[in-house]
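Archive transcription. Copying these from loose printouts into the bound notebook so they stop getting lost. Printout 1 of 2:
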Amino acid sequence: MICQLHLQNFKCFAYQTLQLKPLTLLSGLNSSGKSSVLQALVLLRQSYQQGLLPEKGLALNGDLVHIGTAQDALFEGAEKDIIGFGLTLENGQEKEWLFNYDREADVLGLTSPISQTDGIYKSNLFGHHFHYLQAERLGPRRFFETSDFLVRQQRQLGVSGEYTAHFLAIFGREDIQPELARADASSLNLIDQVEAWLEEVSPGTRVVLTSNAATDTVSLQYSFLMGTQRSKDYRATNVGFGITYILPILVAVLSSSPGALLLLENPEAHLHPRGQAMMGELLARAAACGVQIIVETHSDHVLNGIRVAVHNGKLKPDDVQLHYFQRRNQDGLAEVISPNMDRNGRIDRWPEGFFDEWDKSLEALLEPGKE
């Protein structure tokens, strides 16, 4: 597990160290640095996959993330033309990468090579037990592409969840961790558990997958239970947008084994409040099973789902890390505030802007109305 992430001269950060735990929640106003934290991790993985790490450099553009050129990545007030990342693992291993700045380049050379035998590259940031799902995921489509290499060999869903249907078609009958299972599902199979968790979003939903080898695609349809009857199959494009949008998140979390690393952006997108709270509970249960999750969210319902899970004893409070990002008024620099959660799910401090909009709205509504 990654316990610390160090950033130097990267985007809105001059120097920043972040504590990471089994479940780390990143929140804050727009353009305050949350996504940059995830991008730093993804850039290291992307560079490793392209064969640039550990000995050559950093790939700013690739299949996982597209930053641009070095001038897009360097902190504007940098005193040195160096971009640096560092990781600390739970076993005490540490590693720092420093990259030379070249304004128009999209591959930044290492200041000094790092040995590939280093144990840091055995962490799941660089292995197959990893998922990164960006905020802009694929919505409903008539057909979804397949990839034998990414799905069968690397068990990946794609950063937009584009291979989720293929993943379910291949691995849908594998059993998930019992601790993540819902008792109302018909089995521990991944597909049955996905459908059970979908009950919180759209009751009675059933996933229908049809593979077409001739076109290398998988069609995704849904049917619905109505009492003892089952409806006809409906195209995903004719069913609520949120069902398809949440599907990659559910599959990524439920299919992960202990030691896996998940980076998730806005898992609450297109979900109603009950579904968002359910997402918080699921993330908490997965973290309690040994899956490390770093999630960026704007949802107080996701946060409250996590708080309730802690309150109910499903996750230890020490396994939750909260980071709130904001920009300082005086100089515009990114600042990170890290509230703590106790055994009852209570949070010790609520900085301005930290999931407090409901309280502000309630206070306004309690004021006498204006004629």
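Printout 2 of 2:
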Amino acid sequence: MDLFNTEDLKWNRFTGDERFDYPIDYSGALLSLRDDGHIDLLYRWEPNHYCHFHRHLAAITSTVLQGELEVIDYKDGKEVGRKIRRAGDYSHGGPDHVHMEKAGPEGALVIFHLYSPDGALVEQLAPDGSVIRTTHLSDFQSDRW
């Protein structure tokens, strides 16, 4: 699979609404889903746009393939750090990582691998930190994603 020629992938686009005071516009595509709790996803962000505020519920690795991605970390509802990940940067994190990601001026393309033996992947959060929705492996198996 050529990760830079993604026209044949089924992309799901996510945007914000009136609850969010920052521009949200990103898309995700399923690359691989296994019965043992492993999933690979490709995400792309529009230039200078965010993904939803969220919490990881699973172990995750990511590699920035194109562009740059700013990761804004939160703890107890307060921003605690920012880092810029550029093309080629690899990272690994565990559950309970609360953050947002924002693409740089050229957008971003990032591959993610998550491992969740219990099936829980991510909680999308409202600006106040309350859970809007939880994404599970079963959402990808049933095409509800």
